[in-house]
Amino acid sequence: MEAIRCQQLSKRYGPIQALKPLDLVVESGSIFGFLGRNGAGKTTTMRLLTGLAQPTTGSAWVAGVETTSADSRARASFGYLPQEPAFYRWMTAQEYLDYVARLFRLDSNIRRKRVPEMAALVGLETAINRKIGGFSGGMKQRLGIAQAMIHHPPVLFLDEPTSALDPAGRYELLSLIESLRGQVTVFLSSHILGDVERVCDTVGIIHEGELLLVTARDELLAQYPTNMIVLRPDTANATPIEPFLQAVQAQDWAAGISQDEGEWHIAVTDVEAGKLCILPLVVEHNLVLARFEWKRPSLEEIFLTLSASSTES
To answer: pTM for the complete prediction?
Structure first.
């Protein structure tokens, strides 16, 4: 089922085409990573999808409700965490969540149950009566997700949720987002490729306002051939590695060998031939390994390749 759909959605600010006509479908229940550099059009797209900006052309639907037509029903179909959320610092977390619940017209019985549920979900149950002004950046982002989910929306929009966090805060927030899998559809905008690779099952890449591709994360990684073998010999084994390296260098599929901190990296030009031959060579030379890995490209490497090719064209 479709959680998000847009047709020919675009936005122009005077002479600047911030978003070129966009056709996109996000399936229900997925964690969708919307990936691009700063200024690529991610926030513009999210503002259009949530009805915070009017499109130059096209339409968008979230959970079956058109969000680009000023339909008042649209606000109940999604939750939204902006890149820089603002809070009433003098409120406690409990007061703020109750305030947001009132905006969505939840009755008192539901609010009394929903507020502590959301605080517990995001790990703020022990801080629910503390003033927001004393919260850390990570706590504020958690509170932002709680307020976005207070009315139990089917779709959650998160705009650069980890960009201002330290490594510990990023890890905690990503773990929280990952725990939401299957509960809501998450549309996660980010320029931090490692975050998207960790939690998202589907990836869309946008560059200079143009959507380059949308595909499953694992399918995207599989499209780029693995071209590196990583070997770490077992230091307890006295078998010399030089004869093995010489035999590898004589293979047509081996493009080069390099060493890095006790590991040997073998560049491969013919992946299938390399996979067929490398282990028999290891056995033939009585080499004992502490590590053996076919290194696949990271999402970062793929993103840089796609961005560069798009710029050149």
So the answer is: 0.78
Q: Computed from CA positions of residues 62, 66, 67, 73, in that sequence, does the dihedral angle turn out positive or negative?
A: negative
pLDDT at 89 over 70: yes
Nearest to 299 by CA among 174, 175, 196, 167: 196
Q: Which of 254, 262, 265, 257 is closest to 228 using CA atoms?
A: 265
| Domains, the chain | 2-218 (3.40.50.300), 225-295 (3.30.70.100)
Residues 60-84, mean pLDDT to the nearest whole number: 87
Q: What is the dihedral of CA 6, 81, 190, 77, to 10 degrees?
A: -20
Beta bridge partners of 293: 230
Degrees to nearest 5, angle at CA 313 with 24 and 58 = 25
Tokens read off for 147: 């307020």
Burial (0-12, 13-18, 19+ Cβ within 10 Å), 170? buried
Residues 194-204 as b/e (b if ≥16 CB within 10 A, e otherwise) read ebbbbbbebbb
| pLDDT tens-digit series, residues 190-221 | 888 888 888 999 999 999 999 999 999 888 87
